[in-house]
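Colleagues,

For the teaching module next term, I've prepared a clean inverse folding example: a structure given as tokens, and then the sequence designed for it. I'd like students to try predicting residues themselves before seeing the answer, so please don't circulate the second half yet.
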């Protein structure tokens, strides 16, 4: 079994979702949203870092995945999102994990079957794949989808195979 965390970076709301992967079986562990607090950008980033670090300490994931940032018309907004994404990559790296990165369309295609699915469709399919899950919000649903994508694209299964081979 491998514990996987998916992270949906955002400066205001950073979604996270933790699943356990055992072969083709995926089970929900936890999910939530880190909400930044602070007057300026540095304080908000520090807030996200502290909250995500506590999530790692609590759930101890063994694999991590983050959604790639897409560039939009607002350059300043894209830059700020990139800084939040840096936190989303830094915390797993501090825990000694390699971070898988997935384009939004890859995540949607893996979970929904369509690369241009909306947030409602993603949340619905996450609920279908993780029966009984209580999702903390759209950002947490996206994070769970990222974790599921990582499990399906070899991130978790490759890790599990390496561990099994090393202990054999």
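(Answer key — instructors only)
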């Amino acid at each position: 079994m491998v514990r996987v965390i998916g992270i949906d970076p955002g400066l205001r709301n950073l979604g996270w979702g933790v699943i356990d992967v055992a072969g083709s079986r995926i089970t929900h562990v936890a999910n939530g949203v880190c909400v930044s607090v602070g007057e300026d950008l540095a304080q908000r980033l520090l807030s996200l870092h502290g909250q995500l670090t506590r999530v790692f300490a609590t759930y101890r994931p063994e694999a991590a995945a983050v959604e790639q940032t897409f560039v939009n018309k607002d350059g300043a907004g894209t830059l700020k999102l990139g800084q939040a994404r840096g936190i989303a990559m830094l915390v797993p790296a501090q825990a000694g994990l390699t971070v898988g990165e997935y384009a939004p369309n890859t995540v949607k295609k893996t979970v929904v079957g369509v690369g241009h699915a909306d947030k409602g469709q993603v949340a619905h399919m996450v609920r279908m794949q993780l029966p009984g899950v209580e999702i903390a919000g759209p950002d947490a649903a996206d994070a769970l989808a990222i974790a599921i994508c990582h499990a399906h694209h070899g991130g978790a299964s490759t890790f599990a195979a390496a561990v099994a081979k090393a202990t054999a």
